Amino acid sequence: MKIKLSIIIPAYNAAKTLVRTVDSIVNQNYSNLNYEIIIINDGSTDNTVSVLNGISKSYKNVCIIHKENGGVSSARNAGLKVAQGDYIYFMDSDDTVESCFFETINNDLDGINDLICFGFNYFYKNHKAKSYKPLRRKNFLLAFLQGYFKLVICSIIAKKELYIQNSILFDVDTYYAEDIEVMVKLMVNSTRIRVLTKSIYNYLYSENSAMHNNEYSIKKFSSVIAHHRILEYLLQKKCEKELINAMENQLITVYYMHKKKYTIGSNKEIDSMFRDYNYIEDIKPKVQFTKFYVYNLIEYLRRKLF
């Protein structure tokens, strides 16, 4: 029987959470979905290997890949390379899905939908802090770029052929916003996007995550570079002007947010990166009444007038 869904989970030092994550997948209310779980051990140094051995003995549809540490992007790419499912879904090794996950998505894995988007719950210290849900909009990508709703890579499912036919991979040198880049590329190349307004993924905030480290680094600047590449991609694809404007506004926002967090002169290499991308300071904010436009207009006027 053909595998309908490949669930790819990168794991680095995830011994404490992996079983909970896998259990949330296998203990679903709906059991008629043919799926596989691919877990990529990204050079873990804790007890992850032992935990994975236990998981692989318990479940026949789990594939384990061991590789040298290369980061979450390289791990996701490794999983994508061996995935056999018609659809691809990425999870994080410390998160979970709701017990209705399979039941909710099953009918939409029909070969017609290119992309299935749904909501996610944000947990802080084991308490649900907020629930995010996508909005049904005629121009879904535009609404996303304008900040009307949030998506993460774990709140979308995409056809495998969408990745293959459009050569979409995660950039291994990008440590922040690499998922946004992939999501935008998937949306640009999708002809049919199914939007589910139910939150069925649980994102658990981790205080140990590098994402939440306050110290500014070269890795963090990769977010600016990723947003720059997204803009270049939209231009290359000759996307409509509204999309270009929305992406420019987002790029300006990200650039200034990073500039505020970093003290010029602290690191020569980071200083050089800001100089390489200072063309962004000459981009005029486009009139779109969103939070990005208001923020950018204030920054632009402050820079030009004072």
Report on this model:
The protein is α/β, with parallel strands linked by helices and 306 residues long. It folds into two domains: 207 residues, Spore Coat Polysaccharide Biosynthesis Protein SpsA, Chain A; 92 residues. The protein is built from eleven helices and nine strands. Strands 1, 2, 3, 4, 5, 6, 7, 8 and 9 form a nine-stranded mixed beta sheet that branches. α1 links the parallel β1 and β2. α7 runs parallel beside α8, α8 packs antiparallel against α9 and α9 crosses α11. The protein is globular and about 55 Å long. 36% of the residues are buried. The mean pLDDT is 91.
For this entry, give a set of tags:
2 domains; nine-stranded mixed sheet; 306 residues; Spore Coat Polysaccharide Biosynthesis Protein SpsA, Chain A; alpha/beta; single chain
Short description:
The protein has 306 residues and is an alpha/beta fold. It has eleven helices and nine strands. Strands 1, 2, 3, 4, 5, 6, 7, 8 and 9 form a nine-stranded mixed β-sheet that branches.
Hey, roughly how much beta strand do the residues contain?
A: 15-25%
Helix content: 40-55%
Number of strands: 9
In the CATH hierarchy, the third-tier topology of the largest domain is known as: Spore Coat Polysaccharide Biosynthesis Protein SpsA, Chain A
Superfamily (CATH H level) name of the largest domain: Spore Coat Polysaccharide Biosynthesis Protein SpsA, Chain A
Number of domains: 2
Q: What gap, in angstroms, lies between the N and C termini?
A: 67 Å
Number of helices: 11
Low-confidence parts lasting 5 or more residues at pLDDT below 50? none
Overall radius of gyration: 20 Å
* Approximate shape: globular
Characterize the main sheet: 9 strands, mixed
At CATH level 2, the architecture of the largest domain is: Alpha-Beta Complex
The overall pLDDT average reads: 91
CATH class of the largest domain: Alpha Beta
SSE arrangement, N to C: EHEHEHEEHEEHEHHEHHHH
